[in-house]
Amino acid sequence: MELEIPFKLFKDNLLLTKTGDVWAYYKIKPESIAINDLEHKEQNKKTMAFVYGTLSKYQELHLMMLPKDMNLADRFNHLAKDFSPSADDVAHYYANETVKQLEYELGTITDEEFLVGVKLKTFQTSDNMKGVVKDSYDYLVRKLLTAVGYDMEVDASYFKQFSEDLNELDSVMRTINGSPVSENELAYLLHYNFLRELPHNVLATGKEHDLYKITDTILDPTEKGYLKLENENGSSYVAFIPVGALPDNISFTHLYEVAQSLKFPVELQIKAQYEEVEGLNGLNSQLSRLRRRFKSSSQEAYQTGERDSQRNVTNQLLVDELQNDIEDGKAILRWLACFVITGHDKDEIKERSDRLINRLGLREIDAYRPNADQLSLFYQLLQGQSIQGAKNWIQVTNNEGFAENLFAVSNRLGNNVGWYIGRVDDMAESQSLEQSIYSSRKIVLFNPTIANKGIKGAKTDSPHIAVTGETGKGKSFLVKLLFIYMSFMKTRLLYIDPKKEIRHWFNQVIENQEMQEKYPLFVNHLKSFHYVTLDATDKKNWGVLDPIVFLKGSDAKDTAEAMIEQIYSTKDKDTAKTAILKAIKTVINQRELGEKVGMLNVIEILQKSDDPEIRGAGNLLYEMVTDSVLQLGFSDGTNDAVSLQERINILEVSGLELPKEGDNPDNYSDLEKKSVALMIPLGKFCEKFGSDDTNTYTAEVFDEAWIFNVAKDGKKILKSMKRVGRSQNNMLLYATQSVADITDQEDHGQFGVLFAFDEPSEREQILQHVQLPVNEQNLNWLANMIKGQCLFRDIYGRVGKIAVHSLFDEMTSSFKTINKSASSASEELYD
């Protein structure tokens, strides 16, 4: 191969080479497939195999996966437009610190960009012999003129003749989410070869159309095994690592998946050429010659009394298999796969190269960092360069085998712009959460406030978030992390804390002298939170959750009935139930007429009844309410309902004794029944909080949402809250143990984002919940998840495993839910 730049001219997404070849380039939006979703991967391979077969008329392909700078700082600049003015300082601080810490660990934060080049025209494309002779003659003339210093003039109008070919190719590319690159993008793609790891501005270089400037970099191949790039902005090193040999069984080689699994950015480029079947040098002729050679070797071994070598037998089987593929009409490709590693020095390159080669070796894939071929591989991988005549590191497979490379498949998750919440976890099983986090470079960004904004490509417009999983798996930690990040945004927040614990943990940070000195912005932000404590021992709180006081019409009636039913069963007591319903209706009408009445007046009506059963029910309810936590919801109507005017509100209910998740409602104590009864009007109050102001984005956070599902008619309250949703510019963050709480038929599609931590008794339901196949492999995958790992389904419908991660010690300290004892600490010390 001649070491020369092949580029001659480019226009839009088309490149003309000096040999007269024309290539078209496309960006491919990757298909997101969870690392463990083998069924989906196999479907993808079938699709890609069909596409590769369809593209065989174009002779050559160039598949590229390039590490694209995410420009994290710029993304946070966009996010900053939605920072709350009252939290602007603290939000900017954590945005900047997030970028700083991630870049310190990972260097340049990159994402994978997938591109395809397709050769539209080669210099020898005529259908008849006369045309072939003429094309060959023209090519020879061009080569001779170039050799003596002349060049044939061609302008951009030359590309107009390919419009029909492009229309056909565009339609094929659309089937795999492909779109033509822009002219600026093609300019940057050509320039990128000479800029690897060198400082540059992507936007500025993308507008550079001067081929001399594009290639203005010194290539120094004098260091064995490396190529040094140098220009006015600095220098860097590059290593090209071609794949030498694949295993005999190439299923699951997944080269592009391997490239994405490494902790450092890696390019993977594959140049492929479709083999001609007929002709003197066609595949049929080559196979015939090979078959004769292998047969001769077998006969020679037989005549000398030796056993035929296993390699010779294997080769004959491979030849027969290739012959069958040809007869079945499959496309046959010769291809070169080459990984590209960049770095600032040779030591970094060597370390990364060794890790890549070892990782490939685990899959029985041989790869090398050749000492003397770095420069030739650089030129070999340039856009527009053909692999015609290349002999080293060449693989031969059919289109189905070629699809095993798993091109344009990714398992990236989250939003393009948002707060950092962890990493995509590629490990099937890990020993610790730290191992999962620090072995991955795929960061997860998440913005809870945009799901209902009609995002292009989103699979849902539901703003609601569900977090499910067994207690102790990290569910509450994630909820509090999301709550803190939402508190930085232009959002009115309500956090429901029925256990009255979040203030305790936040205050521990606020009162810590070291925290005050090291993290003043965070401490001051926590101080800005507004707490409302509903304490039944304070008469000012009596009736703040009285449904007749803060609700109207059917909402007041249904909520009042549900509260009474929670503490007093009317089963087989039709007379009492009828009287209760009439009394509720009467008091609601009185309230609408302006009277100061409430739920205690309902009880008073029952107590005045002449019917002993009704009077007895009234007396029992009165005794249950008096001097109990129920006074928060049963009043004479003289106090107003609770009002939350602050931006960030934490609503505590004092004196509650909530049952544990999984407890049988039949075994609840009287106090537990009363506590659950109060959750019913509390839920209706939250619905009111989310629907009062449609011009302001509001969010309610329920870390104990399961309570509504054990309360009679509690599910009805939650469904009503979820319906507020998009039309009212409201979001519900709903955390519960069981996926059954949110997967009934009426809830279908009401949660746009799902986080599912493991729950051993519900693994099949969890997989169905996030829309992954229920099979043994996925069940084991879920079973091996440890604390802090969960399945995540984002707004684009992508599903995968993530490791939840807080970058900041001060936040982590404020999310604690338990204090370690000396015994537990010593147990971990000697682990």
Helix and strand arrangement:
Blueprint: E1 7-11, E2 14-17, E3 22-28, E4 31-32, H1 38-54, E5 60-69, H2 72-79, H3 88-106, E6 110-121, H4 129-147, H5 163-174, E7 178-180, H6 183-192, H7 202-206, H8 211-214, E8 218-220, E9 227-231, E10 234-245, H9 255-260, E11 267-274, H10 283-303, H11 310-327, E12 332-343, H12 346-361, E13 366-367, H13 374-380, E14 394-398, H14 399-403, E15 409-410, E16 419-424, H15 433-438, E17 443-446, E18 465-468, H16 475-487, E19 492-497, H17 502-510, H18 513-518, H19 520-527, E20 530-535, H20 547-550, H21 553-567, H22 574-592, H23 599-607, H24 612-625, E21 648-654, H25 670-691, E22 698-702, H26 706-710, H27 714-724, E23 730-736, E24 753-756, H28 763-770, H29 776-783, E25 789-793, E26 799-804, H30 809-814, H31 822-829
Parallel strand pairs: 4-15, 18-23, 18-24, 19-21, 19-22, 20-21, 22-23
Antiparallel strand pairs: 1-2, 2-3, 3-6, 3-7, 5-6, 5-11, 8-9, 9-10, 10-12, 10-13, 11-12, 12-14, 16-17, 16-26, 24-25, 25-26
Helix pairs in contact: 10-11, 17-19, 21-22, 21-25, 22-23, 23-24, 25-27
Q: What spatial form do the alpha-carbon principal axes imply? A: elongated
Q: How many E-type strands?
A: 26
| Spatial gap, N to C terminus | 58 Å
Range of helix content: 40-55%
Radius of gyration: 34 Å
Unreliable segments of 5+ consecutive residues: 123-129, 820-831
Structural class: alpha+beta
Q: Could you report the average pLDDT, rounded to the nearest whole number?
A: 86
The biggest sheet, with number of strands, parallel, antiparallel or mixed sense and barrel status, is:
13 strands, antiparallel
Helical stretch tally? 31
Share of residues in strands: 15-25%
